[in-house]
Design brief:
Elements lengths: L2 H7 L4 H4 L7 H4 L4 H10 L5 H8 L17 H12 L6 E3 L11 H8 L2 H4 L11 H18 L3 E2 L6 H15 L9 E5 L4 H11 L5 E5 L10 E8 L10 H9 L3 E7 H4 L12 E5 L15 E5 L12 E6 L4 E5 L6 H4 L12 H39 L12 E4 L4 H10 L2 E7 L2 E5 L6 H10 L9 H5 L24 H12 L22 H4 L5 H4 L11 H18 L3 E3 L5 H18 L7 E5 L5 H8 L3 E5 L9 H10 L4 E7 L11 H10 L3 E5 L12 H4 L3 E3 L20 E3 L38 H34 L18 E4 L10 H10 L6 E2 L6 E4 L7 H23 L16 H4 L10 H5 L3 H5 L9 E2 H6 L5 H11 L1
Parallel strand pairs: 1-12, 3-4, 3-5, 5-6, 6-7, 15-16, 15-17, 17-18, 18-19
Antiparallel strand pairs: 2-8, 7-8, 9-10, 9-24, 11-13, 12-13, 14-20, 19-20, 21-23, 22-23
This protein binds pyridoxal-5'-phosphate (PLP).
InterPro entries: GcvP, GDC-P_C, GDC-P_N, GDC_P, PyrdxlP-dep_Trfase, PyrdxlP-dep_Trfase_major, PyrdxlP-dep_Trfase_small
Enzyme class: oxidoreductase
Protein name: Glycine dehydrogenase (decarboxylating)
């Protein structure tokens, strides 16, 4: 009889008896008591605690977490409902880059609320990610078509950071020449949060930001770039052709922050001289969410593609010559180029880019134009009504936003607020009003009534109001079939489902990506993301309407402070990379505040994730690499030697703990102390926090600041490559330097000096913080600590099962691994077998490969997480072992060196069901190598993708994809 059955028969304690029937930890943590016992036995460990004691160095262990006790799923939801009810949904006319939108129901239910979409990972394994790659190709096509530029990436984190990245890209384009080109002009009519972020980013790079009026500013030889907004933040639309020509005349690059909906009616930026266009796709069906998450975009000229930040989807071909998509130009990314990378962006905003692209697919070019014309007509009507009331409005043409002057603003705001309406606060005599897709004629009448007038008669002039040359759009857009086929709900539903079916996600099997922590994203954690009390709030809404959010932030900050052992937390950075950047800026400000602004050396171990050096470079730091020893530890002697050598200029070290080699280094405290002894700070990359929660913490170890990837340790789903959140925790001496925000300050300590903004919204992607709140609230201190222990158990179990087949590369002093393990496949290379062959072959077995070739080339880094049961771990290990047998067959000559199931993996249905089959192995071996896939087969949509071909023949839009298909036909 299994142990769990015995336990069930024992008399329960009263607290066990009365525990809620929907207790969550049992659902989140995979192995039950019997499975844990079996795994511990296999590891020769007397108990889970004994295993953990042997794994985590005793001198870094912490006391039990001081967090509220766990609630059942329904009780936690009820408590969160209480917070939600403290948020008030006022109708927003604030604008400033955030607008109401109708999320089509079919997109909400089949994408946003669908684990088949939201639990997928970044599409590195392209053959099992063709669905989201196609949706992202649509997104890129949408952006290139509307901006009139040649190439667009697959999303940026938000509009403000996209503008800052554009500035940095232009700065890089002047490389070698940068000292002569230090000035960057920013129009004062850009959104204030954009200006805030650009200023923050410019400082460490020595860029001088000039804020002014583009009508009076003359670009000079020192100007490397200019940034303007179109339509601008006041609503006015300018013709920038002359200004851009003047900028180009002195060799400056031109950047436009713009609005995709407006561009359906307005001349495309690429047609009046823009080199780069950035903006947000939020109003394409993505709720405001009190600031995010949303997809931003960046488009530019083909000539600049190698300097572009962010991920890019491109079309290539597969092993059968069929078109297949994959991430292109990976050589620009941090993983390869480290401190020379084009940006530090890793997790982007894929799910939101998918939603926005689907909104465009659903409406099509005509539907989008209709929405835009309607918004524009209502805005024209509003302008007429306000003028007749004696108010002044923009002299220039407008699209959806008016700046209304010559009025008594206090009274207007009071009247509006009394009707639960928010207008943009500007000054005593001026208010701003933005309209959007959801605005009705009755609402326009109501707005006019606040100014003491009535709506003018509807005339055909108003209804047909459009733009005239040179502002009017003349070029076609979204002519590709995908934007013209799926305008009924049935067609749309089936298109979304067809794409979903091409993608392997956590709904199919475990995704053991080391360092990415693909744990359960529970349904109860996801429910509140759709609640309007969280989704429908504008990020700059008055604080008395957002008390529920305020409490949610306070709760999370308090809990994360306890979990990290730090003094304060900032929830602003909206990805781990952004947390790294923010944390390093905090360190930089700290040194400056002590008159030590010269400290600019950042030590980074060679095992670090590529975002670390990329972020450090953005801070203007000089990177000094530190070696690792044979056991995977940071080479302590090398670290100390480098710290000593650079003592005077040492700014910080960036370390990941447990290291990306999957071990708890026992010397960690000593290393931190050594850095401190030279006046340096310790930045901890918290991506591996899943091995620390409840057992140790960055604060206990001696770090000064760390980021947390809430989309790893704290259950925000990866969304196919975003969204995420990367809040930072800091020790008390760094708390005064946390990021601020020009509109709504998220800083508690308001009197003190703090950084400028690092994200467009004060609390980053606020609406997905509910997921992490639910996780911590449902797990409680015991559940969270148990999760960490089981994550360690699961990793050690996998390591133990696989080590007879694949050497486990690194272990701690006691022979155990942390929450992940690296298995070595390098030895097979001499037999012509690459780690990639095994990775692709796993797809035939229904699995996503572990992290491939990071941090060590030719290896798999396996992180099973606590959420997988023994059954699933065994199924994965069985697949790995079976693949080992196939590799062995190549070595013995039983299988052909080239014509074997590994080299031909993955096998598509098309290949396996073809009339002709000439391979030396059977079709059964090809596609049904295990019982699991005989029961439930996931078919890779395409065969092995040719990366090199795609980079040589770069195609990044649907238009190119069709041209490719036509050429082939
Ligand atoms: C995931 C990861 C990062 C980057 O975080 P994002 O949230 O993707 O920006 C940095 N370091 C390590 C070790 C990681 O695993």
């Amino acid at each position: 009889m299994p142990a769990s059955a015995n336990a069930a028969n024992a008399t329960p304690s009263l607290s066990e008896l009365l525990a809620p029937t929907d207790s969550f930890a049992r659902r989140h943590n995979g192995p039950d008591a019997a499975e844990q016992a079996a795994m511990l036995k296999a590891l020769n460990q007397p108990s889970l605690d004994a295993l953990v004691d042997a794994t985590v160095p005793p001198h870094i262990r912490r006391d039990a977490l001081d967090l509220p006790a766990a609630l059942g799923e329904s009780a936690a939801l009820a408590e969160l409902r209480g917070l939600a009810s403290q948020n008030q949904i006022f109708r927003s006319h604030i604008g400033m880059g955030y607008y109401n939108t109708h999320t089509p129901g079919v997109i909400q239910r089949t994408i946003l609320e669908n684990p088949g979409w939201y639990t997928a990972y970044t599409p590195y394994q392209a053959e099992i990610a063709q669905g989201r790659l196609e949706a992202l190709l649509n997104f890129q096509t949408l952006v290139t078509d509307l901006t009139g530029l040649e190439i667009a990436n697959a999303s940026m984190l938000d509009e403000g950071t996209a503008a800052a990245e554009a500035m940095m890209m232009c700065h890089r384009l002047k490389e070698g020449d940068a000292s002569a080109h230090r000035a960057f002009f920013v129009s004062e009519k850009c959104h204030p949060q954009t200006i805030d972020i650009v200023k923050t980013r410019a400082v460490p790079l020595g860029i001088e930001v000039i804020i002014g009026d583009h009508k009076t500013f003359t670009p000079t030889a020192g100007t490397f770039g200019v940034l303007v907004q179109y339509p601008d933040t006041t609503g006015s639309i300018h013709d920038f052709a002359t200004f851009f020509a003047a900028a180009h005349a002195v060799g400056a690059f031109t950047i436009v922050a713009t609005d995709l909906l407006a561009l359906t009616l307005l001349r495309a930026p690429g047609e009046f001289g823009a080199d780069v266009a950035v903006g947000s796709a939020q109003r394409f069906g993505v709720p405001m969410g009190f600031g995010g998450p949303h997809a931003a975009f960046l488009a530019t000229k083909d000539a600049f593609k190698r300097q572009m930040p962010g991920r890019l989807v491109g079309v290539s071909k597969d092993a059968n010559g069929d078109p297949a998509m994959r991430l292109a130009l990976g050589t620009r990314e941090q993983h390869i180029r480290r401190d020379k990378a084009t940006s530090n962006i890793c997790t982007a905003q894929v799910l939101l880019a998918v939603m926005a692209s689907m909104y465009a697919v659903y409406h099509g070019p005509e539907g989008l134009k209709k929405i835009a014309r309607r918004v524009h007509a209502l805005t024209s009507l509003l302008a007429q009504g306000l003028r007749s009331a004696g108010a002044s409005v923009n002299a220039e043409p407008v699209f959806d936003t008016l700046t209304v002057g010559n009025i008594f603003a206090t009274k207007i705001h009071a009247d509006a607020l009394a009707q639960k309406i928010n207008l943009r606060v500007i000054d005593d005599a001026t208010v701003g009003i933005s309209l959007d897709e959801t605005t009705t004629l009755a609402q326009v009448e109501q707005l006019i009534s606040f100014f003491g007038s009535t709506r003018p008669a509807l005339t055909s002039d108003v209804e047909r109001a459009g733009f005239s040359a040179p502002l009017a759009r003349t070029s076609a857009f979204l002519t590709a079939p995908s934007f013209n086929r799926y305008h009924t709900e049935h067609e749309m539903l089936r298109y979304i489902k067809r794409l979903e079916a091409k993608d392997l996600s956590l709904v199919h099997s475990m995704i053991s990506l080391g360092s990415c922590t693909m744990k359960l994203n529970a349904t109860s954690e996801m429910f509140p993301v759709s609640w309007p009390e969280f989704g429908q709030l504008h990020p700059f809404a008055p604080s008395d309407q957002t008390k529920g959010y305020a409490q949610l932030f306070t709760d999370l900050e308090t809990w994360l402070t306890e979990i990290t052992g730090f003094a304060a937390v900032s929830l602003q950075p909206n990805a781990g990379s952004q947390g790294e950047y923010a944390g390093l800026l905090v360190i930089r400000s700290f040194h400056e505040s002590r008159g030590e602004g010269h400290r600019n050396i950042c030590l980074i171990p060679t095992s670090a994730h590529g975002t670390n050096p990329a972020s450090a470079a953005m801070c203007g730091y000089q990177i000094v690499p530190v070696a690792c020893d044979a056991n995977g530890n940071i080479d302590g002697a090398d670290l100390k030697a480098k710290a000593d050598a650079h003592a005077k200029n040492l700014a910080c070290v960036m370390i990941t703990y447990p290291s990306t080699h999957g071990v708890f280094e026992a010397s960690i405290k000593d290393l931190c102390a050594h850095i401190h002894s030279h006046g340096g700070q310790v930045y901890m990359d918290g991506a591996n926090m899943n091995a620390q929660v409840g057992l140790t913490s960055p604060g206990h170890i001696g770090a000064d600041v760390c980021h947390l990837n809430l989309h790893k340790t704290f259950c925000i789903p990866h969304g196919g490559g975003g969204p995420g959140m990367g809040p930072i925790g800091v020790a008390a001496h760094l708390a005064p330097f946390l990021p601020g925000h020009v509109i709504v300050s998220p800083v508690h300590d308001k009197g003190r000096k703090h950084l400028g903004a690092v994200s467009a919204a004060p609390w980053g992607s606020a609406s997905i913080l509910v997921i992490s709140w639910m996780y911590i609230r449902m797990m409680g201190p015991d559940g969270l600590t148990a999760a960490t222990k089981i994550a360690i158990l699961n990793a050690n179990y996998v390591a133990a099962r696989l080590e007879k087949y694949f050497p486990v590369l690194y272990r701690g002093a006691t022979g155990l691994v942390a929450h992940e393990c690296i298995v070595d496949l390098r030895g097979w290379k001499k037999h012509g077998i690459e780690a990639e062959d095994a990775a692709k072959r796993l797809m035939d077995y229904g699995y996503h490969a572990p992290t491939l070739s990071f941090p060590v080339p030719g290896t798999f880094m396996i992180e099973p997480t606590e959420s997988e049961t023994l059954t699933e771990l065994d199924r994965f290990c069985d697949a790995m072992i079976s693949i080992h047998g196939e590799m062995q067959a190549v070595v013995t000559g039983e299988s052909d060196k080239a014509n074997n199931p590994l080299k031909h993996a993955p096998h598509t249905a098309k290949v396996v069901t073809a009339d002709e089959w000439t391979r030396p192995y059977s079709r059964q071996t090809a596609a049904f190598p295990s019982e699991f896939v005989r029961q439930s087969k996931f078919w890779p949509a395409v065969g092995r993708v040719d990366n090199v071909y795609g980079d040589r023949n770069l195609i990044c839009s649907c238009v190119g994809m069709e041209a490719y298909a036509d050429a082939k036909a």
